[in-house]
Every structure is written in C-alpha cells, then in structure tokens.
C-alpha cells in the first residue's frame, strides 16, 4: 500500500473545509467544538494546550502514528496554508472561503439549499407540508407517461377502512414514545433521505479521508478534478447516480418510493453495461450504503398494466440478483448465490403507501399451480381467459373482473389492484379458513423468582402492561388475556368479571401440570378490564419479599399452552432466572474455556430437547411464543430462543437488566410496549411459488417448515425477514421469471387475508448482466443467514471461511469472466459498481458479535446477535453489520435540525480509528445501541453543553440519558438521537452509552470493536482484507480452480500479520 | 435342529422383518416427501396433509426397536461364534451406537427438510444392507441344514 505522492494533492479540496465554508450565514449559532481558546466569535472551541492546527479549522488531528493516512495539506500554496495566517478567520468574524477557492462541488450542500429551501419553508409545519402532498400525485404519474388514466394505481376501492385502521394504528404507535415522535416529522423512507441529504457532503469526506492511493494508478488518481467526488473509474457513475436524487429533492414521498422500486432508478444504470470499480486503496464508499438495489430491467410489456408498482417494493421482497441466469450451469459458473429476502408483513411508517386491498373476495388463481393472478399474466382469447405466468395454463377470467355483481354495472378490470400492484392483499372468503379467525389471545408467563423481583423486572413489566392495555390490538373487543406467574410453583389468576379482586390459584405440582380452573383464567380483556388492572397494580407488591430462587418456566409454558391451545394465540414469556426445576430445567452450562474454540457451537445449540418439541407442539396449535430474557447471569439464550425460532416469535435479550437504572427500564418498557401493540397476523402460512424450472431449496428464519414449500407461522410478527434459497432445475426459456409469495393470515381484527407479493425478474444469458444486477444488501443478508446456519451446524470458523470463500469466488469469476484478465496476479481488485460494498459488509460480518473470532464474547450475547442476524430485515441489518459513525463536535449547521425529511443527520464517517480526533465527540449507532465517544482532549465547553458536566474528568462512562439543556448543541444531539431511535422499522429502542477515551476498558473495547475498518483482536483491517481477497483471487485464478488453500498462515485471516 | 441352523433361521426372520420395516418406512419418508410438493400444491388450504410432526413421531417409535433388533442379532452371532456374520453386522452396530451417543438418532421435525437428503441416502444403504443380510443368512441356514443332515 503506497502512500500517495504529493503531486495530486493540490487538486483536491480538503473535505474539512466544506462544513466550514457553509458556516458563513451569520445568525446561526456556531456548532463546531474545537481545541484552543480561540476568541468566542470563532466558531470552534479549542483546548488551550494544543497548538493551532495548521489546516482548516475543521481539520482532524490525526494521531502522529498514523501519518500514512494523514490528510494532505489543504492548500496548494504554502502562503495560504495556515488557517492562522488567514486574518479574517483568525479574527473569527466569519470562517470565510472565497468561492473562487473551491469552484467545484456542484452537488454539495451549497447546491442543495437551492433546491431545498423553498420547500423547507413549506414543511416547517409539523405534520406534512401541503406542498409535498400536492406534489405527490404528479410525481406519481411522472415516471410513466404512457400510463393510461384508466389504470391509475390507486386501487379501485382500496377501502378507506384499511386507511382508517392504519391511521389508528399510527396513532397508537405514537401514544407511547411521544417525545420521540415529536422529533420525527414526515419521513417516508429513511434510506432515501440519506442519499438525498448526504451523498453530496459525504462524498468529499470519502474522497479526502483516504487511506492511500494506489501508486500503480497515478493517472487515474490525479485525474479527478476537484469537483468529482469519486475515485478512478468511479467518476462516471457517481454524478450520474446523483442526478436523479438531486432532481427528486423537492418532490415528496411518492417519487422516493418509486425510485426505491427500481423503476425511476432505470436511467441511473444503463442496461447491460457493467461499471467496474477498483477496491484497493479506497475506503468503503459508505455514502452508497443505503442506495437502492440495481434496477430490474424487464423487457417492455412484461406486465399487462405497465404500472410502476407491478413489481413489489424491495422492502417487501428482493432477490440477491435482479436478473436470473438462464441455466443452472450458468448459475453455478457465476458462483452467485440466488436467494429471496422477504419481509412480507413489514410495518408501514408514516408516509409509506398502504398495501392495496382487494375486498370483493374475487380471487382468481391458476387451476393447476394455484398462482394468484398478478400483473404479469397475459389475457388471451379476447380477454376471456388469462394465461398463468408460472405454468402457462389458460384459466377463465372471473366475470366479476368486468361486471360488478352488486351494482350490476360494468367494471374496469384494468383498475383492479391485483393487476396493478406487485404487493396486494386479498380479503379471503371462508374457503380459506379452517375455522373462524381466532381472536388475539395473550398469555403472559412472568418469572417472579428472587432475581426477577430484585432487578425490578416484575414491577416494570406490570407497569408497562398496565400502560399498554389500550394499545393491545382489541378492535372487536375479542382479545383474551391470561397471566401466569411462576417461581418454584405456578400461580394462576381468576379474572372473572364479577370479581373486584383477582383470585390467585396456586399449583405447586410442576411435573404434571394441570389447570386449576376450567374457565376464567383466560378472559376477555374488555369485560374483565378492571380485575386485570387491579391485578397489575398489585403484582409488584405481591412478591416483593420473595426469596425463592427457583423457576419452573417449562411447566409454566406447558400450562400456558393448555390455556391457549384451543383457540391459538401468543405466549409472552418474561424470564429472568434460568429455568431450574420442573420440565425443561436447564443447567448453567457456560464454560469460558470453550469460548473461541470449536466446541463453542455446542453452547450455541439448545441444551434440552424440550424447547424444540414444545415449540413444534405450539406451532401445530397456532400458538406463538415470544421470549424476553433478562440476564444477570448466564440465562441460556441459545436454548430459550428455540421457542420463538420455531413458533415465529421474537427474542429480546436484556443483559444485566436492572430497573433501577432508568435507561434499562426505559428500553425494556419501550420495546415491550411496542411488542404488545404490534398488529400481528395470526395462524399464518407462507407459500412461495416460482416459475417452472425454479425450485426453493431451503428456508431461513423464524418459522416451522411444514412441507417442502410451506412455512407455518402461528404468528406473523411485523418486520421479520425470511430468506429463501433458490435453485434452477430446468433451463429457463422464457424472457422473464416470477416469484410469488403468498401469506395467508388472519389479521388481529378478525379478517382472513392473503398478502401476495409478486416479483418478476428478467432471464439473462450473459455473465456481465448477472453481475451488474446483484443486490449487495440482499446478498449480505443471505450471507449472514447462511453463516449463522453454518455456525450452528458445524463451527464458527467454518462459517467465517464460508463467507470469505463465497466473496473470493465472486471476485474470481468477475476477474476471469468479465474482465477477462486471465490468470495470474494483477495489482488491482475489481468488482462491479453495485457490488463495491460487499467486501466492507463481509468484513462487518466477520467482525460481528455473532460471528467474530473471540474468546471474550459471552454465549448469551453471541446467541442473541445470531438471532438478530437471522431475523432482521435488510433495513435494520445493514447498519447492524456496518454501523454508522457521526462526528458531533464539528457537524454542519443544518444537522440536528428539522429539514424536509425530518431531522437532518450529520454526514457519515468511515468506521476507522483515524476518524477519531482526541478533542472530538462522536456518535456511533448500529440500530441496537448508540455510543457517544468522547475524546480525551475534549473541550470543557462541549461537556457542559452536551452533558451538563463541567469537564471531561467529570463524565462517567456507561449507560446514560442525555439531559435536555437549553443550548442548541444539546438540542441538536437530542434530536439526532431521537431520529435514530425512530427512523427504522422494528421494535428496537437503541440504548445510549457514553464511552470515554480512557474510560473503562471493556466498554472502550466494545466501542472500538465496531470500528471495523481497523484491525481489532487480530482480525483484519479493511485494507488487509482486500489484500487477502486479492491474493486468494490471484491464487485461485493461477491454479485455475478453487484448489486447497496453501498451508501458509498468510492465508489464515485470523492470524494475518 | 442344530444351533447354527436355528440361529440363522432366526437371522433370516429378523432380516426379513427389518427389511420390511425399512421398505415400509423409508418408502414413507421418500414417497411422502417426494410427493409432498405435488400433493400439497393442489391444496392451498394448508391443511395438515402429511405433517412432518406426525411422521417424525411415527418414525421415531421404530428407531430404537430397529437398532435393538440389529444389535441383538449381532450379539447372538458373537455368542455363537459366527464371525463372518458378526463382522458383517459390526459396521452398522458401530454406526448406530455413535448416533445414539451423539443423540442424533431421532428424526427431528424441525430439521427434517434440511436433512432429508441424508436420511434418504441412509435409508437406501440400510435397505441394501438388510437385503444382503437376508440372503446371506438364508444361504448360511441352508448350508447349516445340509451339513446337519
């Protein structure tokens, strides 16, 4: 890795100048914190001791030992070099930058205000600007001029009721975290807003904060005029990609959605042309971390209605490849994994389009393969019949398509939602029911042993349930509730509505569980509300003096199952002690000596077969089980999470929970409340169909596989993702293939519904087209799923090797078949533009808590991380693998304020220790936790402003709640944290940690382990990983096969030096 | 009738019984799961057509008896000193013991679709083995009977 020779330096503007350059507008309060006692008007604070840095005010001070990565001198001429030498700046009147100094940056922040401003004013009103709403319908039509007015995409009678219930749901969602919602204004799709907001600013960040530049390509590196943000071959693609976003900036939600669907994205990437990017020497281009998948380039007239929503949105269903190889041989040769990533029941945030509903119960399906009619069928014989797009059978078109049976009026079939949308929901008639839709039923199994009571879990849980009783889905007043508390015996409660106080029924027989009363244990929530409320108020005091350290959770679960198995429902188990008596008793089996060895896998697998067999019984009776595990000590998450895994539930883990800490209580209460309020689907099955010649080979996720293509889910939690591997059996002779996921479920409002997701993908014969259509985020999700499965069946080392091998294979194929560079080693490592983040995501996976080589990660944490890797949808998983780092002390002015897409976030930084200045304050988040890192040399003013603490010494590391202070910096940071907690789907509430640079080592190391581009724990840094990949690719191509790896420790990625 | 012939007659009966069990159940596994796709394709009502849970429960009832019978036969050969027959049975006994000690001998309903191909292969091997055994025992029985008379 060569250090960049100076020649090109003058041509590149240092990125740190930009934020300052924008700071000229006077009235705004200065936002930068910076060492040295510069006079107050100066926008930055500086610790007194440090000499003024030679560069621009925002220039990072790299530690001296990182000279290799040092920022080039910012100015070409030494006369202008020092910031101090610049009189206006030194006076601090305004941090001026003559515009002539940096003419370029056409698409940085200086440009965005022009497009944004007028709109921003409109959107100052909290809910949503009427401007934006007015703008959306034209935006809706814009991408499809040919779209006939008869086939407008808004569903024929997309029932207002569903909108109503959606609105109602949103209202309920808001009831709890109100202060957070206030910070959250209309924000359709966070992923999009990142790009809109930050692509420009973070581009220069990426380009100037470079590690080094490959010496072999000085021409390429020297070439970029200061205006081009990209590197080398990337240049052409970058401005092109940004163009659409720029244009979209003033337009509201709709276009975002469309571009997300890959239709508006069409012009971004010309078809068939593959753009190669060299990876060596460039930090990962994180500004593209939330870019949409490559466009699906369907042949014209693939769908009958040419609707832009004919393909379902990638947030519901996406494929690792947006083009399918025509033969199995080609798929094998390309070495690309083919899989679907499905999140069928995802939540809708405000601004998301609701799923159109077909409510007339006319469900046209193919007679042979049972495919639901979709936008990709064809009408033949004058519209009398339709030809199935999966098996090509001709079927009759139902008469209701052309004639409304109720009003006897002719109907327009082109308006039907199922022919216009790739994602629709049918209201199912009685043929789709085995029994009437079940009422929602919740059985709470609450641990009341000593540790549960002492940690405050019982009290917090009781309080949360009490507060959330209104949020539990109970539209028809049918919801049923039961409570079982358990220590060494089981306590049932009689909630008969005629009682004023609940009656406790004690069962101490735990080996052969029976129900103490035939009725009144599982009661109607509305009828017995007052009894339940009085119970919940008393619960914290009932067991407050307990000394019982035993827990019979297995028996309690059996009892809960007996209660609810008749009608189906949900068991919510709150577990604090390891179940140690009765059925399914477990032993504390964690052995620190096994951690980091091949034997670790045994600890990650279930210890007792009971939880698996019980889960299977639950699945049969449509009972789901959610586990909330509170661990002071070892709590065997691996075994307990078996239950949610096979019953389609969710596992939440709170290590070291102590309700005395408000942060812990708040996190648990928030997530638990969200879990209760979740509008789950019930007694569901998922079936995935595909065109002839395509077969589903295996499934990953939380469900029970009931037959080769049928997944049983007693409950469908929102925002869980499933991954399906696909194989090609026969050659595909059609120009397109379809995948259709059907989720048959009962809503919690007592309606049977079928949600159908259809994705149509083109069939390609050329390797380059396959590679240019790979969706790297879906790919990362697939690799995560596969790696976790591998880790649990064989060992963790194998899982990591499998990931690396897969990436090496892909890079090798790209090198030999697309670049055609033949065998031997080449100085570069090249991949297509749409796969350029895959190495970074791979590294994130290798270093993830769930998979990292380490003997320090407790089994519980690892097991929980694996559960999350397996169940998270792409939107949550990507930041979980590659966390987000923001710099707070020098964030731009607009960051933390309300823009047109909600709160504006600061530019993202690469995850590398070089980015951490000693006087800096940084925020890192991965969707599960938020860390605020405070450098040793931080200015006292920042501590005072942000934490209300006089100096750095006064700060205490660990979980904190940020105080609300009357100063702009604190308010902005609070806004940013609020936004981070709210912007993604899922019930998770990231907890805030304060990490001091010289604080507690464990916490510090934990934080640093997220800086994945650095070398940590003997695992590779990002440049080292690239080097390793390159060597492996060269080795393989030289030997023209994936031969045995050389016995050289050089190839062992974990001992790499 | 001498011990040898008696033993091998017993062996023949046992092998026939095992063979029947294998055919009956392995064909169940193979046929059921091979046809499951087609059968269930037609019904979208998602009733429990062939439920892996029931199937595994049924199959699991016969796993230990089968292993027991085979091990018993092996023990009898050993006691009788029919070394060739014992040697023939030894690999399978070792394999079974290994499975039981690792707790992998039961069919797991949650994993059955992932491990289906392994089960299938195993079934075919056992089928072939029992068939071989059957004829071998038959031959030895006849030899013993002839030698006797």
TrEMBL record, chain A:
One of its GO terms (molecular function) is zinc ion binding. Residues 437-674 form the Sec23/Sec24 trunk domain. GO terms for cellular component: COPII vesicle coat; endoplasmic reticulum exit site; endoplasmic reticulum membrane; Golgi membrane. It comes from the Eukaryota. It holds the Pfam family Sec23_trunk. This is Uncharacterized protein. Residues 1-247 are annotated as: Disordered. It is found in: Cytoplasm; Endoplasmic reticulum membrane; Golgi apparatus membrane. Residues 903-976 form the Gelsolin-like domain. Residues 363-400 form the Zinc finger Sec23/Sec24-type domain. Belongs to the SEC23/SEC24 family. SEC24 subfamily. It comes from Umbelopsis vinacea. Residues 123-139, 228-247 have a biased composition (Low complexity). Residues 111-122, 143-167, 178-210 have a biased composition (Polar residues). Residues 775-878 form the Sec23/Sec24 helical domain. Residues 681-763 form the Sec23/Sec24 beta-sandwich domain. Residues 1-13, 26-63 have a biased composition (Pro residues). One of its GO terms (biological process) is intracellular protein transport. Keywords: Cytoplasm, Endoplasmic reticulum, ER-Golgi transport, Golgi apparatus, Membrane, Protein transport, Transport. Its main location: cytoplasm.
From TrEMBL, chain B:
It comes from Umbelopsis vinacea. GO terms for biological process: vesicle-mediated transport. GO terms for cellular component: membrane. Keywords: Membrane, Transmembrane, Transmembrane helix. The keyword Oxidoreductase does not apply. The keyword Membrane applies. PANTHER family: CORNICHON-RELATED (PTHR12290). This is Cornichon. InterPro entries: Cornichon, Cornichon_conserved. It is a multi-pass membrane protein. It holds the Pfam family Cornichon. Belongs to the cornichon family. The chain crosses the membrane at residues 7-31, 71-97, 127-147. It is found in: Membrane.
């Amino acid at each position: 890795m060569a250090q960049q020779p100076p020649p090109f330096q003058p041509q590149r503007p240092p990125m740190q100048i930009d934020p300052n350059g924008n700071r000229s507008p006077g009235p705004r309060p200065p936002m930068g914190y910076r060492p040295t006692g510069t006079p107050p008007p100066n926008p930055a604070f500086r610790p007194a001791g440090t000499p003024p840095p030679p560069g621009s005010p925002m220039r990072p001070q790299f530690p001296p030992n990182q000279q290799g990565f040092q920022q080039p001198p910012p100015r070409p001429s030494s006369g202008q070099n020092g910031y101090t030498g610049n009189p206006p700046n030194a006076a601090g009147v305004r941090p001026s930058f003559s515009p002539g100094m940096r003419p370029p940056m056409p698409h940085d922040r200086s440009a965005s205000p022009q497009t944004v401003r007028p709109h921003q004013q409109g959107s100052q009103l909290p809910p949503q600007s009427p401007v934006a709403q007015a703008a959306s319908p034209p935006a809706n039509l814009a991408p499809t001029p040919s779209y006939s007015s008869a086939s407008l995409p808004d569903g024929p009678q997309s029932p207002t009721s569903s909108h109503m219930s959606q609105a109602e749901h949103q209202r309920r969602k808001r009831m709890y975290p109100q202060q957070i919602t206030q910070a959250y204004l209309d924000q359709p799709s966070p992923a999009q807003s990142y790009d809109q907001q930050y692509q420009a600013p973070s581009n220069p960040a990426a380009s100037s904060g470079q590690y080094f530049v490959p010496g072999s390509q000085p021409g390429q590196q020297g070439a970029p005029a200061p205006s081009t943000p990209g590197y080398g071959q990337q240049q052409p693609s970058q401005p092109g990609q940004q163009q659409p976003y720029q244009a979209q900036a003033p337009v509201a939600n709709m276009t975002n959605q469309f571009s997300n669907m890959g239709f508006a994205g069409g012009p971004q990437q010309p078809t068939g042309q593959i753009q190669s990017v060299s990876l060596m020497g460039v930090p990962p281009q994180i500004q593209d971390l939330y870019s949409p998948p490559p466009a699906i380039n369907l042949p014209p007239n693939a769908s009958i209605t040419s609707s832009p929503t004919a393909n379902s949105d990638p947030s519901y269903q996406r494929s690792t490849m947006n083009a399918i190889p025509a033969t199995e041989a080609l798929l094998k040769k390309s070495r690309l994994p083919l899989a679907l990533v499905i999140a069928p029941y995802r939540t809708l945030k405000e601004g998301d389009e609701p799923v159109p509903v077909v409510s007339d119960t006319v469900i046209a399906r193919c007679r042979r393969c049972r495919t639901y009619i979709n936008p990709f069928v064809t009408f033949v014989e004058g519209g009398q019949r339709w030809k199935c797009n999966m098996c090509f059978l001709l079927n009759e078109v139902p008469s209701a398509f052309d004639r409304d049976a109720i009003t006897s009026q002719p109907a327009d079939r082109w308006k039907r939602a199922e022919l216009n949308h790739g994602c629709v929901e049918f209201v199912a008639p009685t043929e789709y029911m085995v029994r009437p839709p079940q009422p929602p039923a919740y059985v709470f199994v609450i641990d009341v042993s000593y540790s549960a009571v002492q940690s405050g879990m019982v009290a917090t849980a009781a309080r949360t349930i009490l507060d959330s009783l209104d949020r539990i889905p109970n539209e028809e007043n049918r919801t049923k509730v039961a409570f079982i508390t358990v220590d060494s015996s089981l306590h049932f409660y009689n909630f008969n509505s005629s009682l004023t106080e609940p009656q406790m029924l004690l069962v101490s027989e735990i080996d052969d569980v029976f129900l103490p009363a035939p009725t009144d244990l599982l009661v109607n929530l509305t009828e017995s509300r007052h009894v339940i409320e009085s119970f919940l108020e008393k619960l914290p005091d009932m067991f407050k003096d307990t000394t019982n350290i035993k827990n019979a959770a297995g028996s309690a679960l059996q009892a809960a199952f007996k209660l609810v198995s008749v009608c189906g429902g949900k068991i919510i188990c709150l577990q604090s002690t390891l179940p140690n008596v009765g059925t399914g008793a477990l032993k504390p089996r964690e052995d620190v000596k096994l951690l980091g060895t091949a034997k670790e896998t045994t600890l990650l697998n279930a210890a007792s077969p009971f939880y698996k067999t019980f889960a299977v019984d639950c699945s049969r009776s449509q009972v789901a089980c959610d586990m909330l595990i509170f661990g002071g000590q070892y709590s065997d998450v691996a075994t307990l999470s078996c239950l949610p895994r096979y019953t389609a539930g969710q596992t939440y883990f709170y290590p070291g929970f102590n309700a005395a800490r408000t942060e812990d209580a708040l996190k648990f209460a928030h997530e638990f409340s969200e879990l209760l309020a979740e509008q789950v689907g019930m007694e569901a099955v998922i079936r995935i169909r595909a065109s002839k010649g395509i077969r589903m080979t295996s499934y990953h996720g939380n469900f029970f596989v009931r037959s080769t293509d049928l997944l049983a889910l007693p409950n469908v939690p929102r925002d869980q993702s499933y991954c399906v591997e696909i194989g090609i059996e026969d050659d595909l002779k059609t120009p397109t293939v379809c995948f259709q996921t059907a989720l048959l479920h009962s809503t919690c409002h007592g309606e049977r519904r079928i949600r159908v997701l259809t994705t149509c993908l083109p069939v390609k014969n050329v390797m380059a087209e396959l590679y240019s259509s790979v969706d790297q985020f879906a790919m990362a999700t697939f690799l995560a799923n596969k790696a976790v499965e591998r880790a649990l069946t064989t060992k963790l080392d194998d899982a990591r090797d499998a990931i690396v091998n897969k990436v090496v294979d892909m890079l090798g194929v790209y090198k030999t078949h697309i670049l055609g560079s033949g065998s031997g080693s080449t100085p570069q490592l090249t991949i297509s533009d749409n796969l350029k983040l895959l190495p970074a995501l791979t590294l994130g996976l290798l270093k993830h808590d769930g998979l990292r080589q380490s003997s320090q990660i407790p089994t519980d944490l690892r097991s929980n991380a694996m559960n999350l890797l397996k169940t998270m949808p792409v939107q949550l998983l990507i930041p979980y693998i590659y966390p987000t780092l923001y710099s707070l002390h020098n964030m731009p002015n607009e960051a933390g304020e309300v823009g047109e897409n909600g709160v504006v976030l600061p530019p993202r930084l690469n995850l590398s220790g070089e980015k951490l200045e000693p006087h800096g304050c940084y925020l890192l988040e991965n969707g599960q936790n938020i860390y605020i890192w405070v450098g040793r040399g931080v200015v006292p003013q920042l501590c005072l402003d942000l934490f209300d603490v006089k100096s750095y010494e006064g700060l205490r590391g660990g979980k904190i709640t940020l105080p609300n202070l009357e100063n702009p910096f604190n308010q902005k940071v609070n806004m940013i944290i609020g936004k981070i907690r709210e912007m993604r789907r899922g019930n998770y509430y990231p907890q805030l940690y304060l990490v001091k640079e010289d604080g507690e080592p464990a916490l510090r190391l934990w934080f640093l382990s997220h800086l994945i581009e650095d070398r940590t724990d003997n695992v590779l840094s990002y440049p080292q990983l690239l080097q390793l990949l390159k060597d492996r690719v060269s080795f393989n191509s030289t030997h023209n096969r994936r031969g045995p790896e050389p016995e050289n420790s050089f190839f062992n990625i974990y001992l790499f030096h | 009738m001498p011990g040898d012939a008696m033993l091998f007659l017993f062996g023949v009966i046992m092998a026939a019984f095992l063979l029947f069990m294998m055919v009956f159940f392995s064909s169940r596994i193979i046929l059921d799961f091979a046809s499951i796709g087609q059968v269930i394709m037609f019904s979208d009502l998602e009733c429990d057509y062939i439920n892996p849970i029931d199937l595994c429960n049924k199959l699991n009832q016969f796993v230990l008896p089968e292993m027991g019978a085979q091990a018993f036969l092996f023990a009898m050969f050993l006691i009788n000193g029919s070394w060739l027959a014992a040697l023939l049975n030894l690999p399978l006994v070792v394999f079974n013991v290994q499975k039981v000690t690792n707790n992998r001998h039961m069919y797991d309903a949650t994993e059955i679709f992932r491990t289906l191909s392994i089960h299938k292969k195993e079934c075919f091997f056992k089928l072939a083995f029992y068939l071989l055994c059957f004829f071998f025992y038959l031959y030895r029985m006849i030899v013993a009977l002839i030698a006797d008379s």
